[in-house]
Each structure stands twice: as C-alpha cells, then as structure tokens.
Amino acid sequence: MAALGTPAAGPESASLEWSGQMCYVARQPILNASGRLHAYELLFREESEAASPIDSETSIGSLLDETVLFGLERFTNGFPAFVSCTAQALRRELVRVLPPNLTVLAVPESLEPTAELVEACSKLKSLGFRLALDDFTGGFHPLEGLVDYIRVDFGAPARVRPEQLRQRLDADPVALVAKRVATHDDYRRALAEGFKHFQGDYLFRPALLTNRRMPANKLAHFEILQSLYRDPVDLKKLSHLVMQEASLTYRLLRLVNSPVCAIRQEVHSVEAAIIIVGLETFRRFATMAILCEAHGDEQPEILRTALLRARFCELGARACRLDAGEQYLLGLFSLLPAMLRLPMGELIQSLPLRDEVRHALAGADNRERCLLGWLERHEHGDWIASDAVSRAYGLNQEKLIRRYGDALIWAEAALRNATAAA
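Below the sequence we write its predicted structure tokens.
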C-alpha cells in the first residue's frame, strides 16, 4: 500500500536528470506579510564539483534550455520563480525559454547598467516577464522605473531602508523584498519598516515560547506518536488514544477513506482503518495528520519543507545503511520547533526515537544526520558545505540530487492530499 501522497509511477515521479547531465537546483521560499508563499528563489549549479551557483557567461544558456525541458512549474508548484540573471542572459534574451508568467528575472545591482542592458530589460518586461533589482544598496539605478521588486539584503550592516526609498518609489508599484532575514525579531523589524516580502531562515526559526508547558492536546499527540512506533504496537490502546482526539480522528478517517488508499469500503473506526491499510501506511497517515493538526493554519511552507526533508531522508536511507522509517521521522521532526514554537531540547525526550536520532535532531554531527545535514546545506545553496558532507560520508552526489527532485514532487502531492482531507 502506497504511503500518503506517494505519486504514481510516471512523469510526476521523474528525477532531475536532464539531457544526460545533472542540474543542481535548490529553492528558497519568499513569503508575503501574511506568512503565505509568494514565490521561490531558484539557486542553480551545473555540476557536483561546482562551488558556486551558475552564473558564468558560458553555461547560463545551456542551463536555461535544460530548465525549460524539465518545466519550471515543477519546482515552484505554479508560484513565480526568482531567477538570477547574467548580463549575457538578458542582452541575448536567453531567458525567453522560461515562461514569462512564472518568472521574475533578478538583475544584480552589481551588473553595469549599460544602455544595452536597460533596453534588454525593457523589452523582456514588455514580453510579460517581471523584473527584480537584486541586492540593492540605495543609490539611483536606471532600472528603478522598470522593476516590480527591489530586493535588499536585510543582514547587510549598511543596507538601504525603505523610508529612504519611499519618496522616490511612491509613484511606482514596487514591492520591497527583505533577503536573509535570519530571526523572527528581524522579520518583525522588516515588517515594521515596510518590506512586503520576506526570505530567510526566520521561517524555520520562529520566536520560541520559552517557560511554557506543552498544551495538553500536544502531549496527547506525542503519546499517540509513541504508541505508533512502539514494538509491538498495542492496537486497542492506540485506537483509544486516537479516538480521544475528535479532530484528529476525523482527519485520519477522511485520509483513510480518500482515493489515496483506494479502499472500496467505508471505514468507520480507527482500529478498522489500521487493520485494513496496514500498520506502516497507518503510521505515515497518523504522523502527518498529527503534524497538520499541531501546525494548524500557520505557514504551510514549514510543513511542506518538513515533508520534503522526510521523504528525502527516507529515499536516501538504504544507500547510507540507515533505517528508512527512522530517517523519515528525523526529517519530519527536524522542523518541530518551528511548528510548535518550542525548543528542540524540550521536545526530544517526548519523541519515539533512538538516542542517536535524538542527538541528530539536537544537531550532533553523526551518521544518522548525514542526509539531513546535506539537505540543510543544499537548501541554502551552500554547495561547498554540501559537497563536504557528501565526501565525509561517501554519499553519491548525483543520487542525492535525484532524490531531492523526487522528494520535492512527493512532498507537494502529500501536502495537497493531507490538506484536502482536513
């Protein structure tokens, strides 16, 4: 029985191997002021040996060609993609292979704003592309009147502030994006200053509620998790625990009765659901339902990333001689502090995991954490650090990239199925 959200074999489960070469792509979410996903920034590299994102004049053309073969929308689920451009890609209109309605062309401020470059950007804008002036420092720039976004490095010590731009930009509907927003305090400051969109680690490190006991319903959820992963599982006790949580019971039965399971009879009890679909599938359903319930209506991008991490770690486990189910939980639980707003130290002891996996969640540099450690660095586009992890643990870089692509597609399908059943 397939796990929740596992796509059927076919085009949707294709890996990121294009025309015989691997394209290394990471994505970072850009959120609006309500915490909802607005776009993704895509970070590229051409080969596993590359130490920096793709931006050379000789490779950008072939990269864009390969991107269109795969389909930009698979990376972004229909949201806009911010793609950093070189002067050559703009002047020679190489970016026209990308779909204008899904693409924001990010123009680094460091590019010399020649008349030819400005003219090229103007033409691309007329073709339906949106433009972003990237890493803006505040001085006048000829593209100001053309761009839809201005992105500012919020972590830069001498960065430009929105009030410095307001008078100049009031007549133009330009959205200000704060990049590298590291903490929730940074996010609040950026919001107060007038930024409209936000990108950075703050999303996965929200303000923690210290000196607070875990709510009773959260404790009940962890008791259910512990029962789910006990060996052997006491089905009657597990069913009784689940039935005490009305919303969780409803969610689980909706999931089990959904087309994902392809069951031809209605299921009216938790115990019957476990027996019919099998314990392993039910574990996956229940764990995801508990996290959806715990996460509530907060930023779904946190849960989407947790699912991506879970599936990636699960897919890579066998090659690393690690337990797949355990790795799934490690990836899934890696963002529990962001979901529950409690420090990992307060959560670890309640998790049904071996000590080595608990240590990995706490940040220990052990083998159990090798896949998660690689992925965290990949998410930031830190290619040098991700390469170091793969070398240290003997991981195959090309296989990691394929698994990342497969996990990305799976996570979106899984979240869509889970929320549809809520």
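The first strand starts at residue 17 and ends at 18.
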